[in-house]
Amino acid sequence: MGEYIIIRPDLGIFFPSVDYISTYIVKLADEDREEKKPILIDCRDIRDTDYTAAKSFMALTTMFEKRGQKLAFLDVRPQCQKMWKSAGIKNESFWLSENLTENLYGDAGIEDENATRMVEVVSQSGETE
Prior knowledge:
Blueprint: E1 3-7, E2 11-13, H1 17-31, E3 39-42, E4 46-49, H2 51-67, E5 71-74, H3 78-86, E6 94-95, H4 100-105, E7 116-120
Parallel strand pairs: 1-3, 1-7, 2-4, 3-5, 5-6
Domain STAS: 1-89
Pfam families: STAS
Protein name: STAS domain-containing protein
């Protein structure tokens, strides 16, 4: 308990890069199928997006709901959030990093500094850093 996977794409999420990112997220989830660590997409560096990305992320949220695994989007800019919501992504999928502990653990009282983080960073070029 206390572990989660964080993915941090940079700049923008558009077709075709969204396909790579989605495939990468599914691969991480498949490798972690038994533990079902929450997967968080840190969107603070995403400046723009398109509807193809929104639909792809909607498909991911549906898949993760069926798996019983958390998938959330952190610190999404308003223009991206609007686009993704138009594709059907629910408001509860959008988290602020300042509320991360509460969103992950509810009232369990676990302090975020006690959490073990597993960080995977995806650059725009598609390379893992």
